[in-house]
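This is your field. Have a critical look at the following sequence-structure pair:

***
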Amino acid sequence: MTTDRHHVLKAWIALILWLIVIAIESTDWLSAHHTGRILYPLLHYLFGIGWERFEHLHFFIRKGGHVFGYGLLSILLFRAWRETLPVASSAEWTFRWANIAVLGTALVASLDEWHQSFIPSRTGTVHDVILDTCAGIAAQILVLIWIKSFAKRSPTTSGASSLSRT
């Protein structure tokens, strides 16, 4: 297998593994009821948080999980498509790759919420799709900033970073 094919394979395997994590998170196992049963005793013991305060905190922890999870999904989609759809120039970022990543993030978020609408302990909402898609957009902005700032610091290297092709 050539090095280029190896990079493509690594990028897609990472993406597929993260999609599996999202699919598992979409089940009853990680519903608010189940995560609350774990987090409340922990936070109550560590910080003395009461139930009323925990309910608000739990909401923000869960939504933060959406932002992190779908932001990472967007980055992994960007990386996979960058490896799969090369451009003639040596560009490290293109609107094409970023747009595909955001659209893919929105598609996965929509399918995730649709799936959750069939699980009695879950609620699929359009608000979460919007939150997840916004997280994907924010991740693409951060990728662009990261690549542009890295390229400015070391002009002799192409924008190799955590999104590198190694």
